[in-house]
Amino acid sequence: MPEALPDNIILFDSQCNLCNGWSRFVLHRDKNAIFTLCRVQSPAGQQLLARLGLPLDTYETIIYLERRGDTLVDYHKSEAAQRILAQLPAPWCYLAWLRFVPRAIRDLVYDGIARNRYRLFGKRQECKLPGPEERQRFLEEIDVD
Known about the structure:
This protein is α+β, with helices and mostly antiparallel strands. Helix content is about 35%, strand content about 15%. It has helices at about 15-30, 45-50, 75-85, 105-120, and strands spanning about 10, 35-40, 65-70, 70-75. The protein has a 4-stranded mixed beta sheet.
């Protein structure tokens, strides 16, 4: 992964209303701008998915990339959500206790919601692009130099 990438990247499906809601939730509570959001449909999102060896056209999970030294470690499903919540201010960081629920159980619930998210929450026909006031919080392109 290029070293110029931000330290904490959240990849999300911007056509999914639930995923958009989650990204807005994080954006509004992340007052210290810890996280950079990246739409999986963007050129940067497609590059990151390819580098992770993940499908480029089906999105079943949020992915959280966290810099650890010289590498970005990727987290998926409930582990990604839990790690993101743990870094938000109170009261949201208190939900980090969810890590004590076995991952198999957390991911079972996560997978059930993910499989039905378009039916339950709807799907956009077009990706919602960040507005001018949010643009600096989004990763849309990656320089490959």
